[in-house]
Amino acid sequence: MRKVNVIGTSGSGKSHFSKRLAAALDVTYIEMDAILWQPDWQPLETLEFVMTIQKIISNPSFVLDGNHSKTNRVKWSVVDTIIWLDLGFWRTFTQILQRSIKRSYARSEIWPGTGNKESFYRSFFSSESVIWWMLKNYWKTKSKYRILFKEKSSSNMRLIRLRSRAEVEAFLVNIRRS
After folding, report:
1. CATH code, domain with 79
2. What is the DSSP secondary-structure string of 91-114?
3. Would residue 100 count as lying in a domain?
4. Tens-of-pLDDT digits for all 178 residues of the chain?
5. Alpha-carbon distance 80 to 6, whole Å?
6. Which residues pair with 43 in a beta bridge?
């Protein structure tokens, strides 16, 4: 397991898990959102985003944190492992709610140099709310990844589906031991 893509719906804990996994494997951690979101919440142009991801994943080892289906063809042509954080709806909702409250209160920059911060307005009253995004896309994302795992089950790629925080913690403990 040297080239890993961690996927899951917004709020599933991809970034937190991916950082811990990268540290346990002693590989580079790559957060796709940090590449995508430029100052003032402007997304990087699609072609440039895909090309940037393509360049980064040419490294011999990494943990890539993020979904971004526009990059699937590129990233999944090189990864040896996909880890799906498939936590339950209420766990995911609770996590994204807590994260949004903390970030809104702290008003700290999410990705250095971008000036991008979460606010109470953006988190709770805006059409750009990550909470609203999670609520709209949770079941669709879950269905999409269920299909993906069936389609890729015969490939050489290792597919790991973690369905609870206990499974997540046990997985990380096992990685550290090996």
Report:
1. 3.40.50.300
2. HHHHHHHHHHHHHHHH---SSTTS
3. no
4. 999 999 999 999 999 999 999 999 999 999 999 999 999 999 999 999 999 999 999 999 999 999 999 999 999 999 999 999 999 999 999 999 999 999 999 999 999 999 999 988 888 889 889 999 999 999 999 999 999 998 877 778 999 999 999 999 999 999 988 8
5. 11
6. 37
Give the Cα separation of 30 and 27 in Å (integer): 10
Sign of CA dihedral 108, 120, 116, 26: positive
Q: Are 83 and 168 in contact (CB under 8 A)?
A: no
> Quick one: how many helices (H) and strands (E) in the chain?
8, 7
Q: 26 lies in a domain? A: yes
Tokens of 145: 């990844």
Task: Record the tokens describing residue 158, joined without a space.
Answer: 């290792």
Range of the domain at 168: 3-88+140-177
DSSP of 110-143: SSTTS-----HHHHHTSTT-HHHHHHHHHHHHHH
Residues 6+ apart with CB under 8 A from 62: 2, 3, 4, 22, 27, 28, 29, 30, 56
**């492992």: which residue's tokens?**
81
* Residue 106 counted as domain residue: no
> How far apart, in Å, do the first and last CA atoms of the chain sit?
11
